[in-house]
Design the sequence.
């Protein structure tokens, strides 16, 4: 048991940049106060400053071989800079490509030369506890290849993308066999389109309004949205976001009546995202009730606070010898967890997991 949470990153993009900045930005946060932006300053005995970065993996020529503090601003990264990060002494190694580089990203990213580095050896040598997967959406083969390396290295995993690992029985059993935890899949932002849409869906159901049809259209200007112009890479993302919302209903509204997913790439938005949500329902006396809203967020920082909590939950599981999919934290942190709960129930279960009151189911 270590008094630090040693974290490696796969994919040094905007989300990684926000995560790294956040760890430095909040390193002196007071554990006994409400700190805007964080759900937990201290989580299970681990302060946010206890998170240490060990190594990172990427394929971008502008990032590989650089210190992580420099690489996090390389390539097409465009998120908001809210903290100066000093040189970290953490190297970015050449990762595996596989299907991690799609049609549109290959037009703006030049791959680093040379072979893939020894992922397993690096993770072991750096004594990494938890690996965070930030690969582009649709990186099915690349994610599964990295998961094998993570298992061989003996690390926990936080899977932030909609390639389904933690919710699949095969991978759950693989992590259980190795005595390792996994939290996934597809990170849910602190207050993003998915959580807002879920809460409103639950609110309508609990207040007796029948939701008949709904849509969520998202546009943004980062490489995530550029990548998702390739519609074949988008299928798992649409499944993840749709199931996250429909899980809050106890009836089927029909596939025709729900549309949720990224819609277009607007380059000048950079890391900003605009989400347009429309909900149409019937209330008392069969009278119509409609909701329309627009949510504007800076996309990457919106997920960083969740990842900060997820890696510490994974470390708690390592400390306690809890392995396999962490159902309770995943239900609160992820769009596609193994088990979907209401957000109120998910939060209660996560707090109980943190305090050790209940075992991971």
Sequence:
């Amino acid at each position: 048991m270590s008094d630090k949470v040693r974290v490696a990153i796969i994919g040094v993009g905007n989300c990684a940049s926000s995560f790294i900045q956040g760890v430095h930005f909040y390193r002196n946060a007071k554990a006994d106060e409400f700190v805007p932006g964080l759900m937990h300053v201290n989580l299970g005995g681990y302060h946010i400053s206890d998170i240490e970065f060990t190594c990172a993996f990427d394929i971008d020529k502008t990032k590989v071989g650089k210190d992580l503090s420099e690489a996090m601003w390389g390539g097409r990264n465009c998120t908001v800079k809210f903290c100066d990060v000093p040189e970290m002494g953490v190297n970015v190694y050449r990762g595996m490509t596989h299907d991690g580089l799609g049609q549109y990203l290959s037009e703006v990213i030049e791959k680093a030369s040379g072979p893939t580095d020894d992922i397993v050896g690096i993770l072991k040598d750096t004594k990494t506890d938890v690996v965070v997967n930030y690969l582009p959406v649709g990186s099915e083969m690349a994610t599964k290849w990295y998961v094998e390396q993570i298992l061989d290295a003996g690390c926990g995993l936080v899977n932030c993308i909609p390639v389904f690992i933690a919710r699949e029985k095969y991978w759950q059993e693989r992590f259980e066999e190795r005595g390792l935890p996994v939290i996934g899949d597809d990170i849910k932002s602190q207050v993003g389109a998915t959580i807002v849409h879920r809460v409103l869906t639950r609110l309508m159901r609990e207040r007796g309004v029948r939701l008949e049809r709904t849509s969520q259209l998202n546009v943004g200007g980062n490489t995530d949205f550029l990548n998702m112009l390739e519609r074949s890479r988008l299928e798992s993302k649409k499944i993840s976001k749709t199931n996250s919302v429909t899980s809050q209903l106890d009836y089927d509204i029909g596939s025709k009546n729900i549309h949720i997913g990224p819609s277009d790439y607007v380059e000048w938005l950079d890391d900003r995202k605009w989400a347009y949500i429309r909900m149409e329902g019937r209330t008392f006396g069969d009278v119509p009730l409609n909701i329309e809203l627009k949510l504007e967020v800076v996309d990457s920082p919106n997920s960083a606070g969740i990842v900060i909590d997820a890696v510490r939950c994974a470390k708690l599981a390592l400390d306690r010898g809890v392995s396999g999919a962490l159902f309770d934290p995943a239900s609160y942190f992820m769009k596609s967890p193994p088990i979907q709960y209401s957000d109120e129930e998910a939060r209660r279960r996560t707090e109980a997991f943190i305090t050790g009151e209940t075992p991971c189911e």
